[in-house]
Amino acid sequence: MNWPLYYYLGPMCLIAFALFSLYVHFFESITAPSVRRTATEVILLVATIALGFLVVYFNFLDGTSYFAYRDMGSDTVDQYVPYYLDLMRKISTRSLGTWNMNYGLGASFMSYQSWTLDPFCLVIVPLALLLGQQHLSLALVIAQGVKMLLCGLLFDHVLTFYCSRPLSRIVGAVLYAFCGFLMLWGQHYWIGASIVMATLMMLMLELLMQRWSMPRFWGLAVASAVSIIMSTYSGFAVMLFSLAYALLRIPVATDSTGIRSYLSGFWRLALPVACGVLISCVTLVPYGTAMIQESSRVVSSGQAPLSERMLDYAKAFVPLRWLPYLVSRLLGNGLVSVCAELPQYLVPATEAFRQTNVYEMTQMGFSVAAIILLLQFAWWELTEADRREKILVAIASALCICYCVNYFLPALSNVFSAVRYRASFALAAPICIAMAVAWERCFLERRLNIPVFVAGAALTAATLAWSLLHTLDGRLICLYFSLALLILVVLSVIMARNREGRCKLVVVLFAAAMLSSSIVDGFFITNSRVWCTKSDFPKADASYESDMSAALKFIESQDEEGSGTYRISIAMGDLNAALTQGFMGIDSYNSTINSNLELFYKELWPGAIRKISAYQATRDDMIHPTLQRMLGVRYIASRGDIRIDGYEPLASFGSIRVLKAQGQTSLATVFESTTSESSVQSQTPQEREGLVQSSAIVSDNAPKGFQNLGRASGDAITGTSTPAKAHVDSQTSVSCCTSTDSKAVCMFAIPYAKGWSAKVDGTQAPTFRTNYGFIGVALQPGSHKVSIAYRPLGTDIGFAISTSGLVLGLIASIAMLRRQKAGGLQVR
C-alpha cells in the first residue's frame, strides 16, 4: 500500500477519540434498558457508521481512488461501470428500452435486470447525472455508504426485538453494517443491495408479527415485490432467507403454543409475501422465460436432472482443509487473502465448486470478538434459555453451519444450477443477533462465563496464528486483530475483577476494540487492491477515450445514413467500449450472453471467445472480413495500424486508426441461397464462414421451402447475398427495405431471441434462427419493407399476474381489517 495516500487516518483517529468521548458521556443512557430506540442511540449509530465509512472510503470520495477494480473484481470496470454510463446516456436521451443495441451485438433487458432495477440506481443515476459522468465513481461510493447506513439503521430496529439496551443494539448494528458480505459484494454494486433487502424483509416480518395493521401488511408485500423485481436472482435467495427467518421466529414472536396458532401466525405473514411475489411477476415471468429459453447459463448447461443434482449436493461436503480458512473468515474476510488467488494447497477446489477466491467463498467477517461472543451466546442458551428457544437456536445454528460446510443450501440459493455463496448475507443476521445478545447479557449485564471466555480467546488466538502463518497479503490485518484480541483479554480481566459495578471506560474500550477490527478488515479489503484511477476509470479522463470520442464524432459526421445503420468494431480497449462510448459495436463482456449468440461464436467464430462465452472478443481474431460485414461492421477502429481485406484506412486521431468497409454494409442481409444447420454439421468453422459469403445457414425448423434455397443441382449454390438498407428505429425495433427476384431470407444482425417479432409489408411473419445466432425472416419475390420489434416474452402474462396480486392484496387486507375491527383477529 502507498501509505502517504492514507495520512487522512490521523485526523480520523482524532474524530474517533471524540466519538469515544461521546459514548463515555452518554454511557448511562445507552446502557439503560429501553425497548424503543432512543435519539442518542440513533445519533451515535449514524456517527459510528459514518466514521467507519470515511475511514474505508475517504480516498474514493476525494477522487484519489476510483470505485472500481482491475484485479479479481474487474467485473466492476469491465461490465458494470460501462453499463451505468450507458444507462445514464439512455435516461438522459429518453432511449431506454427492453433491448440494448449497444451491449455487444445486442442484449435483452432481462439479462441485466438486476443492474437497472437496483433500488440504489435511484441514488447512483441522479447523482451521476447531476455531477457529470466523470464523477460516476463518487456516485457509486455514496450509494455504498447509503447501503451501509440503511443496513445499520434497519438492523438496529430489528435488534429491539432481541436486546433491551441501546449500546448492545449499536454494537450489533455496526458489526452488521461492516460485515464481510457488504464490504466485498458491495464493491459489485447491485449484489450488495441484496443484504439491504433481506434486512428490510426481516424488519417487516418482525413488525407484522408484533402487531397487524394495514401499513405493515403492505410494507411486507412491497418489500417482497421490490426484492424480486430488483433481481430475480438475488430475490430468490432473499425469499429463502425470509422464509427460514419467519419459520424460526413465529413460535417466539407470536407466543405460539400449538400447531394451530403456529399456522395462524404463518399464514398472516405468508399472505402479504404471496401478494408481493405475484406483484413481482411483471418482471419475474419475462425474466424466467428469458433465462430458461435464451440464457447460456441455463440453456447450454447440460446438467443432470434436478432430483439427481439435489441428492448429489446434499451428500457433498467441503474438504476438511477448508475449515481453518472458514473459521478465519468468520473473524475477518481479509485475514488470509485480501484479493490474491487462494492456493489449492490451502483451499482446494472441488468438482462442485471451483471458484475458490475471496469473492465466491463464504462471506463473513464479523470482528475479532466473533468466536468469543458466539461461544458466550451458546453457553447462555444452554444454561438459561427455555426448551423451545434452545431447539430454535439449535436449528438456526445447524442451518448456518450446513451453509458453510455442505453444498445443498448454497446450491439451493442458486436454484441448484451451481454451488454459489452469494447468499452469504443470510449468515450475517443470525450471527450478529447472537453477538449482540451475548454482548448485552455477558458483558453489559456482567454474566460473563470465564472458562468459556478463555476457550473463545484461545480459539481466536489459534485462528489468528494460523491465519498469520498462511496469509498471502493480510499480514497487517492479522497483526491488528492480534492486538485487538490482547486488548479484549486485558479488558475482560479488568471487568472480571471489578464485579461491583461497570467501569464505563472499560466497556466502551471493549466495544471500540471489537468494532474497530471490523472496520479495519473493511479498510484493507477495499484499499489493498488494484483500484482504478482517473486515468483508467471509463469516462473519467482517459486520453485514448478522448481520441476515440473524436473518431466517433468524425465517423458520425462522415456517414450520411446515420449511426443506426452500421456497427463499429474496436480492436483495443475494454470489451464494453460500445457501452462506454455509446455506439453499436460487437465485442462485450456479458455474463448472461444469449445462448443462440453463443452458438454463433462456437460454430462460426470460435477465436472470438476468451476461455468462456462471457468474453466475446472479436479483436482477438479480427481477420474475418466476411463475418465483420455480415454483422454490419462498416468501420473498424484500432490503436495502431491494422490490415483487413475489404477495409481501407480512412483517418487517424492520435493513436486511433479508423478503417472503412469498401462497398455497402448493413445490419440486414438478403440471402437468395440457404443451407440447413444439419447439412453443415460436419463442416469446420472456416468452411461455414466461406459458405455464409453467399448462403445463409438456417435452423432446421425454418419454414418449408426456405431450408435449401438457390440450389440448381446437388450442393451447388446459385443464389447471392445482398446487403439491405436497414436502420435501427429505436432500441427495440429495426427495419429495412429490400427487393428480391426469388424466394429469399432476410437476416438481421440482431441476436435471435423469442421476444422478437417480424412484419413483412405490415403483415406478421414468423422468425427463425439464421447463421446460428441471428433473426431470419422468409421473403417471397418482390419489393418489401421488413421490420422487427422486441417485446420480452411473458410480459402480458406477467402484467396480468401482477395485477391479480394487487387485487388479492387489497381484498385480503380489507377483509383482515374488518375482522380486526370486529374483534376476530388477534393483533399480537
TrEMBL record:
It holds the Pfam family YfhO. This is YfhO family protein. Keywords: Membrane, Transmembrane, Transmembrane helix. The chain crosses the membrane at residues 6-27, 39-60, 136-155, 167-184, 220-246, 266-287, 330-349, 361-379, 391-409, 421-439, 448-468, 474-494, 506-525, 797-817. It comes from Parafannyhessea umbonata. PANTHER family: INTEGRAL MEMBRANE PROTEIN (PTHR38454:SF1), INTEGRAL MEMBRANE PROTEIN-RELATED (PTHR38454).
